[in-house]
Amino acid sequence: MKRKGKNVVIFGGGTGLSIVLRGLKSYTENITAIVTVADNGGGSGALREDLGMLPPGDIRNCIISLADAPPILEQLMQHRFKEGYLKGQSFGNLFIAAMNEIHGDFEHAIKEVSNIFRIKGQVLPMTLTDTNLVAELESGLSIFGEDTIPEYVSKTNDRIKKISLVPESCDPLDETIRSIEDADVIIIGPGSLYTSVIPNLLVRNVSKMIGSSRAKVYYICNLMTQPGETDGYNVSDHVEALYLHGKNLRLDYIIVNDEKVDDKVREIYQQKNAIQVLMDGDQEEYLKNKNIKIIRDNFLDIEKNYIRHNADRISKIILDQKKVIDFIKG
């Protein structure tokens, strides 16, 4: 049965990716979410260490975002045990782990879980290789592990210079290659820049394939800086990091929020050492020199003092070329 809507491929991880997926599925059924599997902390990290499987957490969130299932199933998949040996672990992670053990194959397990939840599109791990992150810091030190990097950087006020995969040579899935070739739209982000977004670009030939794709390529810039990763970063700094790591990468458009949050919310985030990522004239000039068109507007969605992207508004603009042109003219 032919699916409706444009072919969209989106790269990322964490909460940011799953939020945008909820918006996209209202406008297209042809969605491929490529999700980082380099995390080694929390419940996912525990299953990775105990069972030797790829971490399921970000993939679980994306499947739930694309699911056509009753709310109680979403609640079940996101439920975290509060007591005992399983304290802190989510039922959804355990469900994926069980499917992985049944099928003996992580890729097959994810497809079966996706079928059960009747998702719109598909969710793919960025690679099936058991990979980790290593950050080279400006001080010259190298820090191993997705969960260790931000914590160390925050404590020492060092800064990330470059991120790498270990092992360095990781291949994408065949479905990822086909999806990029067929894509009408490619979206990068949002998400933790160094530990969720960039790792996808380090998989063999992915950046090159994005760069040579016929698709329009969008980067959704983060709304806030992230302690231990992007302290003090502006919009240009995010783009520069993407180009540094993504060999032959091409960005056509950048989605940038230009609405300031109110004082109460700003103070809450400042206590966590996070500030808004905003743009000025110098950054506009930098992006224009990179041939990146800027889409600026109020893309905030604030609920219970939690800042996130307005996924519906962003999705509507990205998937309607007339709206894109209007925003750029504006």
Give a verbal description of the structure.
- There is one protein chain.
- The chain is an alpha/beta fold and 330 residues long.
- It has 15 helices and twelve strands.
- The strands form three sheets. It has a seven-stranded parallel sheet with strand order 3-2-1-7-8-9-10, with helices on both faces. Strands 5-4-6 form a three-stranded antiparallel sheet. Strands 11-12 form a two-stranded antiparallel ribbon.
- Helix 1 runs parallel beside helix 3.
- The radius of gyration is 19 Å and the shape is globular.
- The mean pLDDT is 93.
Q: Secondary-structure element order, as H and E?
A: EHEHHHHHEEEHEHEHHEHEHHEEEHH
Q: Whole-Å distance between the termini?
A: 39 Å
Radius of gyration: 19 Å
Number of strands: 12
For the biggest sheet, the summary is: 7 strands, parallel
Task: List the strand order in the largest sheet.
Answer: 3-2-1-7-8-9-10
Low-confidence stretches: none
Beta-strand percentage?
Answer: 15-25%
Give me the secondary-structure category.
alpha/beta
Helix content: 40-55%
Number of helices: 15
Any idea what the shape is?
A: globular
